[in-house]
């Protein structure tokens, strides 16, 4: 019979009761391995439970193994928290429930078997089993009345049969599957490459473009990381045929980008142009030559036509995209109206018509042809002249599912345009930018089939409706209710809005969106990418089945001798570099012996294995001889002395063993007396050679009552030294976080010294006092400390971010700033060891960090490196090189840091910027000292004793005037624009406080803005207590030497306040409305503005910032070098 859909109470869930007495019944079981033979991660188990009516409480099946895990079935015959239904669960076997870091993901099917054909009751679910959720199933699997109904055939002879099918999965198999849900997959974000991902997904879904990329010729031997066409083909192939998010690392490598480029966000429009230009170049001379232009290229007609004489000039230009204004445009049609708007040149702006002289004229742009794929770039970012900064335009801007560019009787078309071509376009893609001018996130909405919208957001692809794809990306404001839903609504600006639109001509939709099949991909590219995919699938399968295997790593004396003194100094061995055997967890231990005998040449009878153990001090040593109960014992039962570790999908258990072999050929293994002997390992330190050397020389089972001095003959023999020579013997105790190598007293026994299996002794010859004084590392202890702290450092010049030239120096982690600076200065040939400033590196962007390292800010080189990049201490040698950036300075760093540097511009009495100057003064200096230091650099008019004043100007307003008596450190590090000027004679007495003054602004009015925006240099004017605005206005004209004609038609006075602007009459006295007495410092104050025409398209003040900008990560020019 058909199994009905489960109700809410029947859906899979954990059991409610935690403690029940197990039934003493011993049920018969049968196991099917048919499925497991096909897939080692799946299998079936059938449980036959007899004497069902006698069962009560919680009943568990015997443990069974499927997919490398041990499971049990769990039932409550009379219900779990209810008495009318049988509860059935799949549970982690009780012995495994306490496993450390338990995690198992499985899809499973529970079946109550019926004797009636087709009558089985089946329910399936999936779950991730973790600590606290070790069982999952159905509280109401079957009603008891139905179970006991003879016609159903479930309960026969007081026996029921339950079958479970389990398929173990890796955790990610249970996450969202973009391919399954949408038919498409995403692209991985390398750091800040979302802008590139959104563009690539858009281009991929222009099928004719994708086909053209596939048709580009590539070499079989080419490397995707150096061949941009092959890398793009690879990305498109994987987007089309694979099931997981696609990496773009090979593609960006082919662009010539490094890690820093991947963390630098660029403009998607700029990338689109550069990428298409590169592809067009690569396509030349191939069968797809001109395809980029065929898809995206249109033509405009620029015309200029005189009104009163017969003169007309035209010029045709091609375009790959159209830049449309957003500001002051209601929708896409308003933008096209503005784009094709006729400009009349008349008056002072007449056109010079060559021999016809200056003429009134009409100027404009019309379209001759539109391309099949029309790319519209919306000008969401623009430079605001009034604010002197880039801004993002978040205004509401409507665009539509279809647009008709033949509207208005073809008003966008030139007279020569082909009117038989219908310019009706259907929207294919919307690229969205969410954020502001300084950064944000890009994603794209695309409808590849022309109907269903999909959202491509890096790795994830989701279905979306038209509202989300179109209307929600118009921008503007969003009206919302306050928290709780009560009160007046408020408006929030939408910062996520459309940035680029891609339309396809309706009449060419089928051609542009053609089918792209495997036949479009060259055979060698298919073979390469299929091989990559097969390898990826193999690795995925291997990872999924990893928990079914144990990686046995067998180390020997030869491994110790090979590594110690070269790649390793502490402990004994790097287990990643020893002989490794991948074995089934069910394999008998005898199989390992056979493999070791075959591959390592050690007969089974001469093998003695030791287990390794991690000690409390962090060292890892052979600890105990391995004793197996039987040679048939499964390898999975051999564990290190560590907490119970759970086997998880994707994680292979590791077993490290040390293989003890006979000490000499032809001999046998020495007898091991567990309570009397200790296994010691020996290293020999030789300080006589340069550089000093450390070698592994062997191991021995030594009686515990042996004294240290009694080891001398043995050690001299191991090192081939004169046995009469005195020795110093040390114990290597630990190396983290600090090295501990302790000298052992000669008369102490091994037992008294608490030496145990796996301990390491380092010995050397005894040195004279003279030798101890002459050598850099005379003792093993000093040598091990030196090795532990040795740190190769790479130095890069801060003013050459892309430079290849580097300096590498081997230093010590314990070196001070002075030591590091001295070593680098010596390499650079500087005349002073501290004429350097160092900066750490950001380990993500691979760029310098924003702030330099201050002199002696850190106690050691290790602290300096950790401030810039992550460099984990390791027992390996050599450690990974760390990077510091340097800049050469003209003073020793302590003196340099005691100075403050400023860039100041000098303005004359007419407010004109005359010059810029860099000045450096002591932190203890006053503003007056700074001005006097600056005076000799200024023009002659500022020399002598005339008073100077310093002000900070921000957005063309006086932010503050600095008191000459204040210290220069009050200026701060973030002063925007510092301006110095001679104090006019009539303003010299201002600081006495008896005279009133006013800050004056030069402003321009902007339509729709209540505030007047400053647009040129501000200035200070004295103000009489009864002085009218008209009188002040006349003095301003005289001060700035403004011609009467200009002054009469403009320079209208207004009162500028925080709330807006207010017109002022000439006869008005405004002292009471101004803060006229507080001269120095920053104060919120009303100002008098003079409205004038702004003909000064101002430059920013950024050129006055004297700080080094290389480290700031400012946007670099986007380039594709592949």
UniProtKB/TrEMBL annotation:
GO cellular component terms? cytosol; nucleus
The record ties this protein, via PROSITE patterns, to: MATH, USP_1, USP_2, USP_3
Documented EC number(s): 3.4.19.12
The answer to whether UniProt assigns keyword Protease to this entry is: yes
Boundaries of each MATH domain copy?
A: 42-166
Q: Which reaction does it catalyse?
A: Thiol-dependent hydrolysis of ester, thioester, amide, peptide and isopeptide bonds formed by the C-terminal Gly of ubiquitin (a 76-residue protein attached to proteins as an intracellular targeting signal)
Reply yes or no: does the keyword Protease apply: yes
Q: Which UniProt keywords apply?
A: Hydrolase, Protease, Thiol protease, Ubl conjugation pathway
**Domain of life of the source:** Eukaryota
Q: Where in the numbering of this chain does the USP domain appear?
A: 185-506
Among Pfam families, the record links this protein to: MATH_2, UCH, USP7_C2, USP7_ICP0_bdg
- Gene Ontology biological process terms from the UniProt entry: protein deubiquitination; proteolysis; regulation of protein stability
Broad class of enzyme this protein falls into? hydrolase
A GO molecular-function annotation: cysteine-type deubiquitinase activity
Query: So what family is this one in?
Result: Belongs to the peptidase C19 family.
How is this protein named in the record?
ubiquitinyl hydrolase 1
Organism whose genome encodes this protein: Chlorella vulgaris
């Amino acid at each position: 019979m058909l199994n009905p859909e489960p109700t809410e109470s029947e859906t899979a869930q954990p059991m409610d009761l935690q403690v029940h007495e197990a039934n003493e019944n011993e049920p018969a079981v049968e196991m099917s391995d048919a499925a497991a033979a096909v897939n080692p991660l799946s299998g079936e188990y059938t449980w036959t439970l007899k004497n069902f009516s006698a069962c009560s409480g919680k009943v568990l099946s015997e443990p069974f193994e499927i997919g490398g895990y041990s499971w049990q079935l769990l039932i409550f015959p009379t219900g779990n928290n209810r008495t009318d239904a049988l509860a059935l669960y799949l549970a982690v076997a009780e012995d495994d429930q306490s496993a450390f870091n338990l995690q198992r993901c499985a899809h499973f099917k529970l079946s109550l078997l019926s004797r009636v054909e087709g009558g089985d009751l089946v329910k399936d679910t999936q779950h991730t089993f973790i600590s606290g959720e070790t069982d999952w199933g159905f509280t109401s699997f079957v009603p008891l009345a139905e179970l006991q109904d003879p016609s159903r055939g479930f309960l026969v002879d007081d026996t029921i049969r339950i079958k479970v099918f389990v398929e173990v999965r890796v955790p990610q198999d249970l996450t969202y599957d973009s391919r399954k849900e949408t038919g498409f997959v995403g692209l991985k974000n390398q750091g800040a490459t979302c802008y590139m991902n959104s563009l690539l997904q858009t281009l991929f879904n222009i099928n004719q473009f994708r086909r053209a990329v596939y048709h580009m010729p590539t070499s079989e031997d080419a490397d995707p990381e150096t061949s941009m066409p092959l890398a793009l083909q690879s990305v498109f192939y994987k987007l089309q045929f694979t099931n997981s998010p696609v990496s773009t690392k090979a593609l960006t490598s082919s662009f010539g980008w490094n890690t820093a480029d991947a963390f630098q966000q660029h403009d998607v429009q700029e990338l689109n142009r550069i990428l298409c230009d590169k592809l067009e170049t690569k396509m030349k001379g191939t069968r797809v030559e001109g395809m980029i232009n065929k898809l995206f290229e249109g033509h405009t007609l620029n015309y200029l036509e005189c009104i009163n004489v017969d003169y007309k000039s035209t010029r045709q230009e091609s375009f790959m995209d159209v830049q449309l204004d957003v500001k002051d445009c209601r929708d896409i049609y308003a933008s096209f109206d503005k784009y094709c708007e006729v400009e009349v040149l008349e008056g002072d702006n007449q056109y010079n018509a060559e021999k016809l002289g200056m003429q009134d004229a009409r100027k404009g742009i019309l379209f001759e042809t539109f391309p099949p794929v029309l790319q519209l770039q919306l000008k969401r970012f623009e430079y605001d002249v009034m604010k002197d900064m880039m801004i993002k335009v978040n205004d509401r801007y409507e665009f539509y599912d279809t647009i008709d560019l033949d509207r208005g009787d073809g008003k966008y078309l030139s007279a020569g345009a082909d009117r038989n071509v219908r310019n009706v376009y259907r929207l294919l893609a919307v690229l969205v930018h969410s954020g502001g001018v300084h950064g944000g996130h890009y994603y794209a909405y695309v409808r590849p089939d022309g109907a269903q919208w999909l959202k491509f957001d890096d790795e994830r692809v989701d279905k979306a409706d038209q509202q989300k794809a179109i209307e929600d990306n118009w921008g503007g404001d969003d009206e919302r209710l306050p928290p709780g839903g009560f009160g007046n609504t408020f408006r929030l600006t939408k910062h996520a809005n459309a940035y680029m639109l891609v339309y396809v001509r309706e009449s060419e939709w089928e051609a542009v969106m053609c089918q792209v099949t495997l036949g479009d991909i060259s055979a060698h590219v298919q073979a390469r990418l299929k091989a990559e995919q097969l390898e990826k699938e193999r690795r995925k399968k291997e990872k999924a089945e990893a928990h079914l295997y144990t990686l046995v790593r067998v180390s020997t004396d030869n491994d110790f001798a090979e590594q110690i003194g070269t790649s390793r100094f502490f402990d004994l061995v790097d287990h990643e570099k020893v002989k490794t055997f991948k074995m089934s967890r069910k394999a008998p231990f005898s199989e390992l012996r056979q493999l070791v005998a075959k591959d390592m040449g050690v007969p089974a009878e001469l093998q003695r294995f030791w287990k390794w153990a991690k000690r409390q001090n962090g060292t890892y040593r052979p600890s105990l001889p391995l004793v197996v109960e039987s040679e048939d014992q499964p390898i999975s039962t051999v564990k290190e002395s560590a907490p119970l570790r759970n086997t998880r999908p994707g994680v292979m258990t590791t077993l490290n063993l040390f293989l003890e072999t006979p000490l000499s050929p032809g001999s046998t293994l020495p007898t091991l007396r567990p309570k009397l002997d200790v296994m010691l390992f020996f290293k020999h330190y030789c300080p006589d050679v340069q550089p000093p050397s450390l070698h592994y020389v062997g191991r021995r089972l030594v009686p515990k009552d042996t004294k240290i001095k009694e080891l001398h003959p043995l050690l001299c023999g191991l090192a081939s030294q004169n046995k009469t020579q005195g020795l110093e013997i040390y114990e290597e105790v630990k190396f983290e976080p600090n090295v501990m190598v302790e000298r052992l007293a000669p008369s102490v026994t091994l037992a008294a010294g608490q030496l145990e299996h796996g301990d390491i002794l380092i010995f050397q010859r005894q040195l004279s006092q003279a030798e101890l004084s002459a050598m850099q590392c005379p003792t093993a202890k000093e040598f091990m400390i030196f090795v532990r702290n040795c740190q190769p450092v790479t130095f890069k010049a801060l003013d050459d971010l892309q430079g290849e030239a580097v300096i590498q120096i081997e230093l010590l982690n314990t070196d001070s700033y002075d030591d590091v600076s001295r070593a680098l200065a010596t390499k650079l040939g500087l005349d002073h060891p501290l004429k350097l400033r160092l900066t750490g590196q950001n380990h993500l962007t691979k760029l310098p960090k924003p702030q330099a390292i201050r002199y002696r800010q850190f106690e050691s080189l290790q602290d300096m490196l950790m401030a810039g990049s992550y460099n984990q201490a390791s027992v390996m040698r050599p450690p990974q090189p760390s990077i510091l950036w340097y800049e050469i300075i003209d003073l020793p760093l302590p003196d340099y840091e005691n100075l403050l540097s400023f860039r100041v511009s000098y303005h004359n009495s007419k407010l004109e910027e005359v010059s810029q100057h860099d000045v450096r003064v002591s932190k203890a200096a006053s503003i007056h000292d700074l001005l006097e230091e600056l005076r000799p650099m200024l023009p002659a008019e500022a020399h002598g004793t005339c008073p100077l004043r310093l002000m900070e100007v921000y957005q063309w307003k006086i932010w503050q005037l600095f008191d000459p008596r204040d210290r220069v450190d009050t200026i701060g590090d973030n002063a925007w624009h510092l301006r110095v000027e001679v104090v006019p004679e009539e303003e010299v007495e201002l600081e006495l406080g008896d005279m009133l003054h006013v800050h004056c602004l030069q402003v321009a009015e902007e339509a729709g803005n209540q505030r007047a925006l400053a647009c040129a240099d501000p200035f200070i004017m004295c103000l009489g207590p009864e002085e009218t605005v008209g009188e002040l206005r006349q003095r301003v004209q005289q001060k700035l030497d403004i011609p009467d004609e200009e002054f009469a038609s403009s320079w209208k006075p207004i009162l500028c306040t925080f709330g807006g602007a207010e017109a002022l009459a000439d006869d008005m006295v405004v002292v009471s409305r101004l803060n006229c007495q507080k001269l120095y410092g920053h104060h919120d104050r009303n100002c008098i503005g003079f409205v004038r025409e702004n003909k000064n398209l101002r430059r920013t003040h950024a050129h006055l910032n004297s700080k080094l900008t290389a480290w700031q990560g400012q946007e670099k020019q986007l380039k594709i070098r592949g």
